[in-house]
Structure formats: structure tokens, C-alpha cells
Amino acid sequence: MKTKIFKPSITAIMVAGALMLTACNNDDAQKPTTNIVKKITAADAKQFLASTEKELVALYLEASRAEWIYANFITEDTSQLSAEVNRKMTETVVRLANEATKFNKITLDADSRRKLDKLKLALTLPAPQDAEKTAQLSQLVAQLGGLYGKGKYCKEGAECLSLGDMTAKMATSRDYDELLDLWQGWRQVSKPMRPLYEKQVALTNEGAKEFGYADTGAMWRSKYDMPADDFAKELDRVWGQVKPLYDSLHCHVRAKLGDKYGEEKVPQNQAIPAHLLGNMWAQSWGNIYELVAPENADPGYDVTELLAKHDYDEVQMVRGAEKFFTSMGFDALPETFYERSLFTKPKDRDVQCHASAWDIDSKDDLRIKMCIQRTGEEFSVIHHELGHNFYQRAYKNQPLYYQESANDGFHEAIGDTIALSVTPGYLKEIGLLDKVPDESKDLGLLMKMAMDKIAFIPFGLMVDQWRWQVFSGEVAPENYNKAWWDLREKYQGVRAPIERTENDFDPGAKYHVPGNTPYTRYFLAHILQFQFHKSLCEIAGNKEAIHRCSVYNSKEAGKRLNEMLELGSSKTWQEALAVVTGKPQMDATAILEYFAPLKKYLDEQNKGRQCGW
Ligand code: X8Z
Ligand code: ZN
Which positions form S-S bridges (predicted)? Predict the structure, then answer.
């Protein structure tokens, strides 16, 4: 998502400072920058927070507008305007966060302390206290974003392909060589990013060190209401819960790809070639569902086809997703949402097509920006984006410091939670599907869902494992690409289909790397959304299997969800989680329960196969 500074978001604005919370105080590391003459009191801290909030609110509004325009019209001029506002924001937050260190040693009420902590952690890319370096960093941020947004694959004698064109082809093509061509073609775009990225890492690390963190990755891990090292361990624990299910899915999918493309091309004891999974990054695999569909259990419908059959255009897709939220008792989106959002790819200019949700003014000026394709996959992404917008509106009355989700994974999880309720029963209710397939087809539905969601989980983890290693220096610039593929293999069991070298910069071909959006949030979201779904289904009084449950029309579920959303980040994420689920712990057992019938099927299918890579 994309928002102003105190909210998690994906672009430079957020880069300037997604304000998030930590319980971790690096008090000693921060040097007061002012000469203390009179004794500083708790009242001074309150006063400081109030005036800081005012200053930032004004700046955020200016930054949001500039960033919106840059993302919607990528030109040299808008890039400069974006860099300038990013510079101003970064400089301001660094100055204020440093000023705030004068309150490190005094006793404060919990609320003021929490706000000060959030201020300290607000920047995604902290800059050193040096005007020249801050300006350089902001230029790099704008340049990297622009390179991605303008990226195209141009082959001699053919029309250039946009990422959207390539995404559509990779979803449907089953031609090994064509897929390979697209896969390598898009990765030409990121080669020139490498030197910029390297410089950016050095500059922001310098800023993180001045803030008292070992490096920028350590700062990112400090935003989760627990010690940074504990958070990293928590990720490993939860991944350990899901890994057996992922391994079973991987084994089955590799076997089916072996049947399709031949075992010379898909050797059955190695990682899967990354271009065969229906997605440019092999991050979710739902587009090749038909290659793995269980016999006799295919539900016999496909949302892309249903949308086409009912002639849904992009706006109707958005209105349909909005209706889900209003059915739960949320207010409709303002008309300005429809007037100001971008729903289709303009033909005549470069835009940042990667979907994002915006909250321009912390009030009602909500928007999305998305080059919508008329597919079931994109219908889910629309729900995802609207989840951001409904969250943003729910916490708009919080102080600026808390106008953010409980942690960034929560922001990413809300729309996905709702999309889990897009079941056959729901599709029938809204008139898209004529007949709900009987339970014998559930296995097919679960397989499709697992191809989207379970396949994603190790990808959601590895992106920041790479960045953390890069920020910490464990991976040096001369090993950027190798380290990326080592992690792709380790976590996902996928591999580059052709030789890669350090002339390539494959991480840069994924939006969030040049866009500087932390990625662990999506890992968290994939775990949390199943926890939320399960609890909301219970609240809604669902009696069916959890994968058949839809909370459509449930005002009770909507009310409870809203209670969590409107907290913003005023409470710890553990407390917010307990509002919906009753428990303060992240836990993957809801996923395992959801997919239990599929796991059984996969393990039967995998008998006699050699799994692993
Ligand atoms: O970037 C997104 C959203 C915007 S916050 C469309 N997602 C990740 C991705 O596309 O890589 C959603 C799932 C993962
Ligand atoms: Zn998102």
C-alpha cells in the first residue's frame, strides 16, 4: 500500500518515513543534540509531540500529493519534485527524531514514550545528518522507482512489452522458450539499478547507525513491539509450522511440471526453474492451477471467466469489492475515490502500475492506483487494496503517530482476509456463479488457494532475508545476485532457468526492492489473514468448513474487525491481534487447518516421489 509517512506504504513517501512502533529503546545510542539548560520534563515531551505532529501533518500532505503525481506521471520533472519532497521529509524526520533523544532519560507516560519511539522508527530509509547525503539518497530513491516504473522489454523488430503485458503472457503461456524469453527480458530492466542500489545501501546504513542501529535491516526488525532478534526468531518459528505443507505442494507441483515439460527440463531432484510457475517472480502459482488440478475435483469455474461472462469492467470489479466491505457495515467509499483513483493503464504515459492504496489527507481522500486487468487474480488484488483504504479510514481519528496499522503485516492482511471470503457461495450470492459446486470439488478449490497462498509464503520471507544480509554487509555488492538466488533456492526451491552473473541484478526486477518497501509484511499477512478469517468466521456464526466460510453480510464480523482497525497502532500488535482472535500470538495452525484435506491429498500423491531439492 501507499500512504503518507506514518503509515506503511510502498513508495518514496513511505521511504521518507513509514512511522511504526517499536518497544525497543536504543536510548543510550542516541546523543542529545541540544544543550540542556533547564531541566526537561514530561510536559515538554508532550509539547514537543504536539508541535512535531503539526509540522509533520503539513509535510505529509505535501509529500503525498507530490508522490501521487510522480507515480501517475513518471517524468524527469516529477522525479525531481518527488526527490525534493522526499529530501525535505527525510531531513525533517531525522532532525525531529534526534531532537527527541533529549527525552530518552526522563520518565514519561506510556503513550508519549510510544509516540517518541514511533518517531524514531518512522523512516524506512534513514539518512545521515548531512544535507548533501540526504539529497543524494532522495535522488537515488526517485531514480530507482522511476527505472522500475518505466521498465519495458524491447526486442528488435517487435513492440516493447510492459510488465502488465508480460504478466498476462506468463499467466497463460505454457511454452518453455516463450516463458524463458519473457523471464529474462524483464530482468534487463534491473541491471542499471545495481550501482544505484549499492550507493543507497551505504547511505541509509550511515543514517541507521547515527540512529543507534547496527544497520538499516536491524532498524526494520525493530518495528514489531518486541526485541528485533526475537522477531527474527518468531518468523523462523512460524515458517517452520508451514514448511511441511509447502514441501508437499512443491513436490507435487514439480512432478506435474515434469510431466508437462519433461524431466530433462524439470529434473525431479532439483529446484524448479523459476519461469514455469505462471508468475514473473514465481511468487504465487495459481495461474498454473490447471496443470496440477486434482482429477474429478475441479470446481469447474474460474473467476476470470465469470467476470468476462458477466462483462465486468474495471470499475465494476472495484465496486464489487467495495460492496463486500459495506455488506459488513463499513461506510461506502467517498465519490472522490472513484473520481481520483487510477484503474486502467494510460496508453500515452509511464505510470507506476504496481497496485497501491493511498490516503492523501488522513481524512477521506482515499484512492487506489492500479492498472487493473480483468482477471480473478486482479479481483483479489482489488480486495487487497481496498483493505488498505478501509484500514486507513478506520484509524483516521488517531493521532498522526498512530495512523498506521498494528504492524505492517496487518495492513497487508485485511483485504486478503476479505478475499478469503470470496467463496463459491459468495459468488453465487452476488450473481456471478449459477450453482455452488458440491463438497467433492473442495479439493480443487483448496489446491487453487494453496497455489496462490502457500506458494507465496517462502517468497514473502526470503526477500527481506536478502535485504537484511545486504544491509548488514554479510552480502557484499559483488555477491548481490548470487545471494539472491541462494535464498530463492533455500526457501522456495526455485532456481534461475539460465545462468545469472553479477552483471544482473535480479532482486531489482521485483517492485519492492527498487521501491524500498519492506517485504516481511507480506509474510506476516499470509499468516495473519488465515487467523483473522478463522476468527471472523466464528464471530459470524459460520458452521461450515473454514474454507467454505464467507463473512459477507456479517455485521458482527465487521464490527469486531473495525474495533481492531480503528486502534491504528495505538496498541501493540499483539493487543490488536487479540481484539479479533482472542490471542496475542501469531500462529499458523489456522492455515494448517484450512488446508488439512489438501495436505492429505498431496501426501498421497507424493508417495514414491523423491521430494526436496
Ligand atoms: O505489493 C503487493 C500489493 C500492494 S501492497 C499489490 N503485494 C505483494 C506483491 O505484489 O509482491 C500483495 C501480495 C504481495
Ligand atoms: Zn498491500
Answer: 154-160, 353-371, 537-549
Place of cell 492504496: 357
> Which pLDDT value is given to residue 18?
39
Residue 573's Cβ-side half-sphere holds a number of Cα atoms within 13 Å equal to 24
Q: Would the CB of 381 count as within 6 Å of ligand 1?
A: yes
224 is in an annotated binding site: yes
Is any atom of ligand 1 closer than 6 Å to the C-beta of 182?
no
Distance from Cα 275 to the centre of ligand 1, integer Å = 19
Pull the grid cell for residue 123: 523512516
CA atoms of 229 and 166, how far apart (whole Å): 39
Give the pLDDT of residue 38: 78
**383 known ligand binder:** no
> What are the residues whose beta carbons fall under 8 Å from the beta carbon of 305, sequence distance 6 or more?
none
Beta strands of 189-236 (E only): which ranges?
none
Q: To which residue does cell 549499492 refer?
A: 198
Cβ proximity of 131 and 119 under 8 Å? no
Decide whether any atom of ligand 1 lies within 6 Å of the 522 Cβ: yes
Distance (Å) of CA 113 to CA 23, 107, 362, 564:
9, 9, 23, 22
Neighbours of 553 (CB within 10 A): 15
Three-state SS sequence of 443-457 = HHHHHHHHHHHCCHH
Q: What is the 3-state secondary structure (H, E, C) of 203-243?
A: HHHHHHHHCCCCCHHHHHHCCCCCCHHHHHHHHHHHHHHHH
Per-residue confidence (pLDDT) for residue 1, from 0 to 100: 54
Q: Do β-strands 494-495 and 272-273 pair in parallel, antiparallel, or remain unpaired? A: parallel
Element (H, E) at 427: helix 424-429
- Which parts of the chain sit beneath pLDDT 50? 2-32
Q: How far away, in angstroms, is 459 Cα from ligand 1 center? A: 12
How many whole angstroms separate alpha carbon 534 and alpha carbon 514?
35
| Dihedral pair phi/psi, residue 9, rounded to 5° | -160, 180
Phi then psi for residue 369, to 5 deg, are: -135, 115
Strand partners, 161: 153
Catalytic machinery residues = 385, 512
How many Cα neighbours within 13 Å face the side chain of 362?
24
Per-residue pLDDT at 578? 98
**In this structure, which amino acid lies at residue 198?**
E
The contacts of residue 118 (CB under 8 Å, 6+ apart) are 6, 19, 20, 21, 22, 401, 402, 404, 569
**218 Cα to the center of ligand 1, angstroms:** 23
Q: What is the pTM of this model?
A: 0.95
Record the cell numbers describing residue 34, joined without a space: 541540544
3-state secondary structure (DSSP) of residue 368: strand
Write the single-letter amino acid at 388.
H
Judge whether 594 is annotated as a binding position.
no
Residue in this structure with the C-alpha cell 456471478, named with its chain if needed: 432
Residue 328, C-alpha cell as written in the block:
459488513
Residues in contact with 45: Cβ distance below 8 Å, sequence separation at least 6, in sequence order: 103, 106, 108, 112, 116
Ligand 1 test: best mutation among 522, 527, 529, most atoms within 8 Å of CB?
A: 522
CA of 372 to the centre of ligand 1 (A): 14
Query: Given the C-alpha cell 526475537, which residue does it identify?
Result: 230
Domain boundaries, the chain: 4-141+200-210, 152-188
Q: What are phi and psi of 63, to 5 degrees?
A: -65, -40
Q: What is the 3-state secondary structure (H, E, C) of 552-572?
A: CCCHHHHHHHHHHHCCCCCCC
Minimum-distance ligand 1 atom for the alpha carbon of 370: 6
